[in-house]
Amino acid sequence: MAREETAEGGFRIEICGGIASGKTTLASVLQDCAMRAMFEDFSSNPFYEKFYLDPEKYAFETEMVFLLQHYSLIRDQVELGELFCADFSILQDEAYANVNLGGERLRTFNEVVAQVRREIGGPDILVKLVCSPREEKRRMERRSRSVEVGVPVSYLSEINSKIDEEVKRVSGSVKVVTIDSERENFASDPHVRRRIGREIRDMVVEGGRE
Q1: Is 164 considered catalytic here?
Q2: Mean pLDDT for each consecutive 10-residue tract of the chain (210 residues)?
Q3: Which end of the chain is more exposed for a tag (fewer CB within 10 A), N or C?
């Protein structure tokens, strides 16, 4: 959805990428560049752990809760009229739903997404993080979240592919910035952190708002 079709409000950056691709880390980088950052609290979704135990049973409520949580957070920030970034994306919610849902559940999810889009539109900048499924798996093992232990590489690959499809779908109407988070070590290299933060800040300025 083009920016001119979106709700009035602050300049908005959404970050998308696979599991453990570096979304939260990048949002922290932008926060260090004087941007307001919003971070997903996955533990506040009451179905999050249940989903990993029984994905088929709990996928619908898990995806709906994440979507509505993200919608609510973004809407509140848009109303403040400020520059902000989020370590999540409505587009990514759609990608997950396309992997985890089907039939009437997916149709219902898409109806809600359509309403969400009508109310809050799309981001000014969508940052897409690229990271291989095997590297994502290594990172998941390092951060040791118990619910993620059994996630197969094939699932990570499927999520990444759906994110790619969704980004391609909107690339003509939203400014997309692609960062290879496997090669660009913005997690611990201060020079890379500063460079990436500066580059994105420059894009914000070019977009018409400091």
Answers
A1: no
A2: 45 97 97 93 94 95 98 94 95 98 98 97 96 96 86 97 97 95 94 94 72
A3: C
| Residue 44, amino acid | S
Distance (Å, whole) CA 196 – CA 147: 31
Domain ranges in the chain? 3-206
Single-letter amino acid, residue 124: D
Quote the pLDDT of residue 9: 56
- Is 18 annotated as contributing to ligand binding? yes
Q: Is 158 annotated as a binding residue?
A: no
Q: Mind spelling out the 3-state secondary structure of 67-131?
A: HHHHHHHHHHHHHHCCCEEECCCHHHHHHHHHHHCCHHHHHHHHHHHHHHHHHHCCCCEEEEEEC
- Is 141 within any annotated ligand binding site? yes
Q: What is the pTM of this model?
A: 0.90
Architecture of the CATH domain 3-206: 3-Layer(aba) Sandwich (3.40)
**Separation of alpha carbons 146 and 128, rounded Å:** 26
Cα-only R_g, the chain: 16
Q: Cβ distance 44 to 69 under 8 Å?
A: yes
CB 32 within 8 A of CB 193: yes
- Identify which of 131, 128, 127 has the alpha carbon closest to the alpha carbon of residue 185: 131
